[in-house]
Amino acid sequence: MTQDASEPFRALRMVKDEAGIRAEFQTLPLSALPDADTLVRVQYSSLNYKDGLAVAGKPGVLRSYPMTPGIDLAGTVMSCESGRFEPGDAVILTGWGVGERTDGGYAERARVRSEWLVALPPGSTAQWAMSVGTAGFTAMLAVMALEDHGVTPEGGEVLVTGAAGGVGSTAVALLAAAGFNVTASTGRPAEADYLRSLGAATIIGREDLPALKRPLEKERWAGVIDSVGGSTLAGAIASTRTHGAVAACGLAGGSDLPTSVFPFILRGVTLAGIDSVTCPMPRRRAAWDRLARDLPAERLSDVTQLHPLADVPALAQQILAGQVRGRVVIEVG
User: Is 68 in contact with 12 (CB distance < 8 Å)?
Assistant: First the structure.
């Protein structure tokens, strides 16, 4: 039976007390949701590294307790006081602090601000949207940033670091679909065939980039999408070609950047930061429309696994241990 808007809903809650921080499945009334103008029936969410940190009880992600994590959600509008959406409209939400500062997608209901929502592109589904999720959305923004800075398939090799992860997998697939010659950097050699199936032409080891210590190394990359940071990003910058571009969108390998100004002032390399959380709505819509065009559901089927909400606590430990490949969609509704 379909739930009425007034009925209680199930949620994964992170709670904190004298015993510490832990995950609990709870049944809650709608009155437990935060104040906002739009009520959404959540059908799917996804699992990102940040979600893994939150559900594992690591500090720095959730700003208060109790809190429902889940930085992504997709579903249908139940009510919208602003008039931006009608009941039944299919919507996507990524970013804006959802699942960090306010309750997120690991619940059957979400109450959010309508200006945070993107209409689901025509012909796509909520499950597809969450197989893309924040990771795929971030990858698309990074591809667009490289293109904005003049990186083209004719310009030479494009590097993707952390290539077996959620952002990296999608970036490899998107770049290959656009005709780029993609080199994938990974610390998991067993994933080489998987990365080639996504379109990577060359596979290099995770250790290759940190080994590049000089301020300027041999020019190789026309563009880079980096989700690792640290010495990996520094090595990638040092080996980027003159007037190339590097899109930085993660820090799985560290937040420091041991580099110099030489690649920027002697080669004109551009370092573009990718912020998927507060990305302006026009660019957000453009990214989702292009994802629907360039990354249809059939292209994601081999890189996506579907799990029920009950599996999230175990999956959080797996993603933090580097044992999750590609994308994980969480069936909530």
Answer: yes
Kindly state the tokens that stand for 204. Answer: 């290099």
Strand partners, 112: 38
- Domain definitions of the chain by residue range: 9-124+299-331, 134-273
> Contact, 153 vs 178, CB < 8 A?
yes
Q: pLDDT tens digits, residue range 234-263?
A: 999 999 999 999 999 999 888 999 999 999
DSSP state of 333: -
- Residue 244: count of CB within 10 angstroms of its CB: 28
Residue entry with tokens 């994308």: 327
Q: Which CATH architecture has domain 134-273?
A: 3-Layer(aba) Sandwich (3.40)
Per CATH, the architecture of 9-124+299-331 is what? Alpha-Beta Complex (3.90)
Instruction: Answer yes or no: are the C-beta atoms of 327 and 133 closer than 8 Å.
Output: yes
Token pair in block for residue 9: 């809903």
Give the count of alpha carbons within 13 A of 14, CB side only: 31
Distance CA 64, CA 186 (A): 35
3-state secondary structure of 318: helix
What are the structure tokens assigned to 128, written together?
């597809």
Strands (E), 133-231: 158-160, 182-186, 202-205, 221-226
Sort residue 326 into left (φ over 0), alpha (ψ -120 to 50) or beta.
left
pLDDT tens per residue, range 94-142: 999 999 999 999 999 999 999 999 999 999 999 999 999 999 999 999 9
**Rounded-to-10 torsion of CA 222, 228, 231, 237:** 20
